[in-house]
TrEMBL record:
<dbReference type="InterPro" id="IPR035985">
    <property type="entry name" value="Ubiquitin-activating_enz"/>
</dbReference>
<keyword id="KW-0812">Transmembrane</keyword>
<protein>
    <recommendedName>
        <fullName>THIF-type NAD/FAD binding fold domain-containing protein</fullName>
    </recommendedName>
</protein>
<keyword id="KW-0472">Membrane</keyword>
<keyword id="KW-0547">Nucleotide-binding</keyword>
<keyword id="KW-0436">Ligase</keyword>
<comment type="similarity">
    <text>Belongs to the HesA/MoeB/ThiF family.</text>
</comment>
<keyword id="KW-0067">ATP-binding</keyword>
<comment type="function">
    <text>Catalyzes the ATP-dependent dehydration of threonylcarbamoyladenosine at position 37 (t(6)A37) to form cyclic t(6)A37 (ct(6)A37) in tRNAs that read codons beginning with adenine.</text>
</comment>
<dbReference type="GO" id="GO:0061503">
    <property type="term" value="F:tRNA threonylcarbamoyladenosine dehydratase"/>
</dbReference>
<dbReference type="GO" id="GO:0061504">
    <property type="term" value="P:cyclic threonylcarbamoyladenosine biosynthetic process"/>
</dbReference>
<dbReference type="GO" id="GO:0005741">
    <property type="term" value="C:mitochondrial outer membrane"/>
</dbReference>
<dbReference type="Pfam" id="PF00899">
    <property type="entry name" value="ThiF"/>
</dbReference>
<dbReference type="GO" id="GO:0008641">
    <property type="term" value="F:ubiquitin-like modifier activating enzyme activity"/>
</dbReference>
<feature type="domain" description="THIF-type NAD/FAD binding fold">
    <location>
        <begin position="103"/>
        <end position="359"/>
    </location>
</feature>
<keyword id="KW-1133">Transmembrane helix</keyword>
<keyword id="KW-0496">Mitochondrion</keyword>
Amino acid sequence: MSSRILDICSNQRFQLLATGLLSAAAAASLLLGYQALEREERLSELKSSIPSLTQDGEAQRLNKFGASAVAAADKEDGRNRALAKRARAGDYDDELILEQLARNRVFLGDGALSKLREAFVVVVGCGGVGSHCAAALARSGVSKIRLIDFDQVTLSSLNRHAVATLADVGIPKVQCLERRLIAIAPWVQFDLRQEMYEGSAAGRLLGPWTDDSGRQPDFVVDAIDNLETKVSLLKFCHDRNLPVISAMGAGCKSDPTRVVVGDISTTTDDGLSRATRRRLKLQGVTSGIPCVFSTERTGEGKAELLPLAEEEFQKGSVGDLGPMPNFRVRILPVLGTMPAIFGLTVANHIILTITGYPIDYAPAKGREKMYEGILGFTQGSEEKLARMSQPGIVGLKIPLTTTDVALLTDDFYRARSAISGVSTRIVLVRWRKPEGSTVVTIGHASTGDLQKTSALRLSDLVCMTKEEATRHEREILKVGKKLDELYDAETISRVEAKRAEIEQYERYR
């Protein structure tokens, strides 16, 4: 055996092959080493171009979370901080504040705006979602904001952060937010907590404001993207009746029309919300927590969060991408606009809730199967009605789409029966029996382009449960009973008022 190995090794072709492989490996190593060195030099040049984080120009040691303890200081910062100090001390004309908040004042009213100006909100997580939420709250008049986040601004933060600039790269996100927002609303008081939220510190982090007033938070914002801490925060707030709203995953989402506010029990089509909901159920929490989430579904060509390939684990340190030294993370596919929409939606909900403004959200979208079922029921109902005047009719078309169904059921009837208010197994059915035929014929049979369509309008339809609609079809549409034989005067009046509202909409459709 050993002699055969010696023969192979002495073979000239083998020696040439081995030399080639060794040369290729050496060249690859040199190339990869050069690329790594070049990248390190570019990163170093970029970092060195960012202004020093201290007045004396000395670099500051990073804390245990990999963040700088001191924000950059310049003349503008000094001027803003001096103004903020005076404003918080009361040396700022209240009429100027009211002028800045004039649009909110007109919209909400003086009493509601006063509630907002006295409010105390805690924002946990100051990244894309949290930063836009905090900025909107400060601009809208909230006077006490506690910011909690351990992370620092990175280059990749700039595509979605509300106020961070290149000069803010490397400083804590909580300091970045305060630094920029006091230049907008200097009277706002910020309580900065540069630390990671943990359940053991919940009582302190979500506790009263820093003065002796003992004021508890009017709202807590969950803008955390870590599952364990997210669930811990929501459970803490739920058990103590502390108002909280949770932002679910904005990653891999691209459709702003699918972003909705709903209870934790109704969240769909999002891995983070699904995992959060399951873990909360295990701890006895099944509902009662409002959430901002997207019902957008993944599809061909859309971004997806794929499992981290095994070879990625073999590449060594990727500290430049992590929020802490030696903290490996994946880069989430995030369209920069979506966290802003989530954050602004969260802030909007808080503003409406604190001020007592009427909230009448439409039920969550993304219920295509339900809409298709309702459309099918209406189609069948119209065919049965048409056959009463034209026996044997088949293939009747109706001028209704799933978008129309969604509009009627969600926006006008709030996904509830107009008869009983029940929200299960809802359908759309004609309210009044039409006089004469409901069929409109278009085209000519001789040319083969004949089309029969129902003369149906949106205002003809009323939302009912399937059982109510079946009885309505039998008694009103088929037998021909009058409406007051089946319904009381209050129900008839309520339905007619809703139909008039829909008819008004149809005029401008």
